[in-house]
Amino acid sequence: MKTAHRETFGGKAMVLLGACMSLVGGPATRAADSVASTTAIVPPQGIETNVNHAGIIRAWNRETLARGEKLYTMMCLPCHGTPQQPGSLPASRAFWKEPFKNGTDPLSLYKTLTHGLGQMPAWPFVSPEQRYDVIHYIRETFMRLNNPAAYFRISDPYLAGLPKSTGTFTKTAEMIEFEKGPKYQRMDFGPALFWTLQVATNNIAYKGIAVRLDDGPGGISKGRAWMLYDHDTMRVAAGWSGDQFVDWKGIAFDGSHGTHTSIVGEKAFINPVGPGWANPQTGRFDDPRLRGRDGKPYGPLPREWTHYKGLYLHGHKVVIAYTVGDAEVLEVPACEQGSGRGLIYSRALKVGRSSRDLLLRVAPQTVSVRIEGPNTARLVQKEGFHLLSIPASATPVKVKVRIESPVHPAASSDAPPILAHEMRTGDEFDSLTKGGPPRWNLEATTRGELGADNQAFAVDTIPYPEGDQNPWHSWMRLGGFDFFADGKRAAVCTWNGDVWLASGIEGDLKEVKWKRIASGLFQPLGVKIVAETIYVTCRDQIARLRDLNGDEEIDFIENFNNDHQVTEHFHEFAMGLQTDAQGNFYYAKSARHALPALIPHHGTLLKVSQDGSKTEIVASGFRAANGVCVNDDGTFFVTDQEGHWTPKNRINLVKPGKFYGNMWAYDVPASNADSAMEQPLVWITNDRDRSPGEVVRVTSDQWGPLKDSLLNLSYGTGRIFVVPFEKVKGQVQGGVVELPIADLPSGVMRGRFHPQNGQLYACGMFAWAGNRTRDGGFYRVRHTGKPITMPIGFHATTKGVELKFASPVDAKSAA
User: Fold this and answer.
1) Which end of the chain is more exposed for a tag (fewer CB within 10 A), N or C?
2) Tens of pLDDT along 324-368?
3) What is the largest CA-CA distance in the chain?
4) Is the dihedral of CA 356, 357, 362, 366 positive or negative?
5) Which CATH number is 53-171 given?
6) CA pair distance 448, 431, nearest whole angstrom
7) How far is 349 from 321, CA to CA, in rounded Å?
8) What's the pTM value of the predicted model, to 2 decimals?
9) How many Cβ atoms are within 10 Å of 71's Cβ, its own excluded?
10) 419 pLDDT exceeds 70?
């Protein structure tokens, strides 16, 4: 091609350019596009022909209305909202005031749920009865009074004209699984759960560690007595008991927006927000932490005051490790049946040598507290609280604090007593911190599905354990992964807190082995392996996972860095994890969705030093940046998801200290003009990618002409895009071109090239606002060696756009 003068389009024009480039990929690309453009999943045979539509509608009653409300709250409310609570997608129908796109009679609504429409995904996993439950709820709750023009009056002739059932409807395996109930309520999270938990009004443990105290199977959610720590302040926020652990509200549980999780049941004691231990230098509990714009304290206490080190696991017991001043502390929470039907909550403490006197806030004076140990440690009462006083001269010391409660967790008097045991001897501290017996002594085997090699790219599916192979009912929404150095194994995290090892992934995939090694982490969405050690990005910390006894299971969840500023907002995810050449770590933290930022970390790209000792803000102004790609020159590629101040999905070339457009970030420019913020590399239209994931650079020779190209992974559409771009007058500009493969069954967010075979592996999930609705997916995308017929480069000129193709273009076809 003859080169003309280069021209800058500006960020906004890249919407059109991105859309156009995605249509010029040659025959193979267009053939794949015909598959990829179909966002609805074809329902199983029999969905239409064997459904008794009229019979289901005639059976509508209060019970079906109640069931519909639950389903609407879980599956529809996040996008559509309610009259009182706006949804997250402005383009989604407001059923109470807007016209419908696809008809308003029950059958039309049923077809929309069955096949999907636009950005509305299909519901193949929901039974016909449940679909009509939701339709019943929408009609009676939103349409009848508020949108009467859209309310269709059902008549006998209408029912008589509905499609007739031609046989017996048989539910699919997906439908049966869905009807078993919420996966979060069936999941075994292990003995402890890191989560933001509300204790009482204006009392939230933002970096909570909930610990089950009673013995028994099923993990923390199946317990009946618990204690809650907050590792920002190293306080015990509460002890409580009952037949239910929490209320299950929150985006990663019931899918609700604008909510957060609260503990439920009988609260034996509650401690206020603030330090759990007095400042060793002053003996005071004054809270010096950062104040958010709401006036509340956020983030951890200064390290010289107290610092959370990590959580040891040994069977059903946990040991919490932290420092107070220069003293090392190990703590084991437990409970036992007290006299009558009450419980005794205990905290067994092993306090190392301290150069200063120590003071622990135990509980309000309204409950009974006593201690066991040397008489050098004593209880004092001050300002309404029991305090444990430990003179420096008494350290090192082992002491147990016992908090007595008349509250019993059972709702009825004939309930069995709590089965639990306290730590009886000080020697147990050592045995509990050296690695315990296997908790998940089962290795699952799955068989991969190899894609056809007849095109330039083949997609192989790596199934994860389900059904009997997953007896812990782990919700397999995959949030990140990385390879070990030999490429034979990968560590894979799930959004609801697991980490698994996957092996046998490098070859023919005939035997892929899965082993669960960790649980209970706080919404992990990034994994990086450094020197064969697993690091995981969680909302509350970067966790470093330690196997202490060689059985591969994690015995110590070490706090590598917990500088994170965490609020209860549902949308402030911590996403991705990468390192630079110096070993520093990077991840992105989301903003508060539709609300102004409260803390400096909202909507930022963050850098954590190689040793984990400090965190700094690299750039700001993001809304929901789903991961990061680190460049060698000190810049980064970061995507952002549309909404509010972000008019369309965007890919950004990020430079340190710059601002990227979300005016609800913490530090914003005085002006919201384009000149006050950095423009994106490309704006992406929704039909191409409604929610971008992480950007990945092609580092493999196996991908031929695409080496050194950028790939954008799509959570929203399950696609992978090549991102050609150029720089003109200091501004990067580019487009997106779909890789010629069909849409993947789940969204994809994380990708890495295999260190040995050189092929792309990608993982992702579905939660809400996506076209691809499988819970999770793990894939290998192979370049087969066949010609790649798609654009991989371009530059803009005064006469048009020049495109560079991966393979020679047939002159006759291009004429």
Assistant:
1) C
2) 999 999 999 999 888 766 899 999 999 999 999 999 999 999 999
3) 95
4) negative
5) 1.10.760.10
6) 40
7) 10
8) 0.90
9) 18
10) no
